[in-house]
Design goal:
- With about 375 residues, the chain is α/β, with parallel strands linked by helices.
- It folds into three domains: about 5-195, Nucleotidyltransferase, domain 5; about 200-285, HRDC domain (DNA polymerase, domain 1, Orthogonal Bundle), CATH 1.10.150; about 300-370, Orthogonal Bundle (DNA polymerase, domain 1), CATH 1.10.150.
- About 50% of the residues lie in helices and about 10% in strands.
- The chain has helices at about 15-25, 70-75, 90, 105-110, 120-130, 150-160, 160-175, 180-195, 215-235, 235-240, 245-250, 270-285, 300-320, 325, 330-345, 360-370; strands at about 5-10, 30-35, 45-50, 55-60, 80-85, 100-105.
- Helix 3 links the parallel strand 5 and strand 6.
- The protein starts with 6 loop residues before the first strand and ends with a helix.
- About 30% of the residues are buried.
- The model has no long low-confidence stretch (mean pLDDT about 95).
C-alpha cells in the first residue's frame, strides 16, 4: 500500500469555517463525509465533518465550532452537488441540514454494475485501483487532539469522492441511467425527510402479527413510549428494552419491577432507569390507541406466486447487470401478491408509487404481464 500525500486543512474556529466556505462556493461538486461515535445512544455523536474538492481536504472540528451557518449554506447550495457514499449513514450527522442536490456514489455504483451495497474503500479500489487502509475506522473520534493517522484516514475517506463522481457520472451517461440515479438520490432525501421523526416500525418486531387487538395496542404503546424515552435520554432503544422484551410485555404486562428482572431483553441498568416507565406503558394503554396494520406472513400458496414475481425481477436484473434489490423491495412484491389474491383481477392491481419513475419502463409492465397470466 503506497503512502498518499493529502493537502489537508484543519478547521477549528468559526472564522476558519467561514473562510473555507468562500472557497467551497466556487466548486460545482464537493465530497462530504463524517466521522462519529454511536455507542448505546439514540442519536449519533458527530465528531468531524470532512469536505473535499478532489485536490484538497478540509477537516471541520465540530467540537470547536459554534456557528455552522457557512457549512449549512454549502450543504444546501443549489449550484453545488454534494457527493456522499451511503447517504443514509451521513444524513443524521450533518447537524440538521440535508445535502441537496445529492449524488450517492453507492447508488451510482449499483447502477453501474458494482453490486447493491459496495463500500467506499472497495469502490475506490475497483475504479481507481487505490487501496485505502481501514485501521482507523474504529478510532475514538471524540478524543482530542486527533492523531495524524486519524486525520489522514479521515481525509482519504472523502478525498476520492469527486473523482468517483466523475467516473460514475460518465458511466451512467453511457448506460443511459443518469435519470435513474437522479431519481433515487431525490427519493433518498424525501424518504429521510419523511421518516426522521417517525416511530419505530412495529412490523420489525417478530411475531407481532400474532397478537390480539388488545395486545397489539399495548405493544404499540410500548413502542411509542420506548422511542420517546430513547430520544429524551439519548439512549439506544435496546438499552431501554429489546424488541422481544416489548413483545413479552405486550402479552403479559408486568405490574411490579421485580417481574422485569427475569425478562430477557432487559438490562439491569435499563430496568433501574426505565423499569417504572415500561410498567406504566404496559398498564396504561389509551383506549383510543390506533395501531398500524400488521400483515400476516404469506401463505404457502401465496409464496409460490411470490417466487414467480421474483423470477421476473431476477431476469430483468441479470439483463441490466444490476442487483435485484435495487429494482424492487420484497415488501412491494408481497403487496402485489396480496392484491391479486384479494381481487383475483390483474387489471385492478395498483403498482407501488416507486414504479411511476424509471421502474415503470423497466419492471412495471413485466410484472403486470406476469400477473395477467395468473387469471
Amino acid at each position: 500500500m503506497r503512502d498518499i500525500d493529502v493537502d489537508r486543512h484543519y478547521i477549528f474556529s468559526d472564522s476558519g469555517l467561514k473562510t473555507a466556505a468562500t472557497i467551497w462556493q466556487q466548486s460545482s461538486a464537493l465530497g462530504i463525509d463524517t466521522e462519529f461515535i454511536r455507542v448505546d445512544t439514540f442519536h449519533p455523536r458527530p465528531a468531524l465533518i470532512q469536505v473535499s474538492n478532489g485536490q484538497q481536504c478540509w477537516l471541520i472540528d465540530i467540537l470547536e465550532i459554534n456557528d455552522f451557518s457557512p457549512l449549512h449554506e454549502i450543504i444546501t447550495a443549489p449550484h453545488i452537488i454534494k457527493i456522499v457514499h451511503a447517504a443514509g449513514e451521513v444524513f443524521d450527522r450533518l447537524l440538521g441540514a440535508l445535502p441537496e442536490p445529492l449524488f450517492d456514489t453507492q447508488i451510482g455504483a449499483a447502477f453501474c454494475g458494482h453490486g447493491a451495497s459496495i463500500g467506499y474503500s472497495k469502490l475506490v479500489q475497483a475504479i481507481l485501483e487505490i487501496e485505502i487502509s481501514k485501521d482507523q475506522c474504529r478510532s475514538d473520534w471524540l478524543a482530542r487532539p486527533l492523531t495524524d493517522e486519524q486525520q489522514h484516514y479521515a481525509c482519504l475517506d472523502v478525498l476520492y469522492l469527486p473523482t468517483l463522481f466523475t467516473h460514475l457520472k460518465n458511466e451512467l451517461h453511457r448506460l443511459q441511467r443518469t435519470e435513474w440515479a437522479d431519481e433515487e438520490n431525490l427519493r433518498q432525501i424525501a424518504r429521510y425527510r419523511d421518516q426522521r421523526d417517525t416511530s419505530y416500525n412495529i412490523e420489525r418486531i417478530n411475531n407481532a402479527w400474532r397478537l390480539n387487538e388488545t395486545e397489539r395496542k399495548r405493544l404499540w404503546n410500548l413502542v411509542l413510549g420506548r422511542d420517546a424515552l430513547a430520544r429524551e435520554h439519548n439512549k439506544s432503544r435496546n438499552h431501554i428494552a429489546k424488541d422481544f422484551a416489548l413483545f413479552e410485555m405486550a402479552r403479559r404486562p408486568p405490574k411490579h419491577i421485580s417481574e422485569l428482572s427475569n425478562m430477557e431483553g432487559l438490562r439491569s441498568s435499563g430496568i433501574r432507569q426505565f423499569g417504572n416507565n415500561l410498567i406504566q406503558l404496559a398498564q396504561e394503554v389509551p383506549p383510543d390507541m390506533v395501531t398500524p396494520p400488521l400483515a400476516e406472513p404469506l401463505s404457502k400458496l401465496e409464496n409460490e406466486y411470490l417466487k414467480k414475481l421474483r423470477s421476473v425481477i431476477d431476469q430483468i436484473a441479470t439483463s441490466h447487470h444490476v442487483p435485484p434489490e435495487l429494482l424492487v423491495r420484497k415488501v412491494e412484491l408481497e403487496q402485489l401478491v396480496r392484491q391479486y389474491f384479494l381481487q383475483r383481477d390483474a387489471e385492478k392491481i395498483i403498482m407501488p408509487e416507486r414504479f411511476n419513475g424509471w421502474r415503470h419502463a423497466v419492471i412495471a409492465q413485466a410484472l403486470r404481464d406476469e400477473i395477467a397470466g395468473w387469471n
